[in-house]
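Page 47, continued from p. 46.
Same chain as before, 64 aa.
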Amino acid sequence: MTNEQMIEAILDKMNIINRGAIKAEEYNQADATAVKEIYDYVMGRASLSLSEVDGIVEELGQLT
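Result:
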């Protein structure tokens, strides 16, 4: 799975509607290990709190 595919899956799971702020194609050069760790965390959760979503979005912002 590519970084872009993992980012898309993360955004889907978090129900992010405004995708203009996080563009999956911008993560092609990001650290694949970091993206995978976030992906595994998000996919392993049944649901996410607002604070978790905020934290994840912040972490994703630091990867680009």
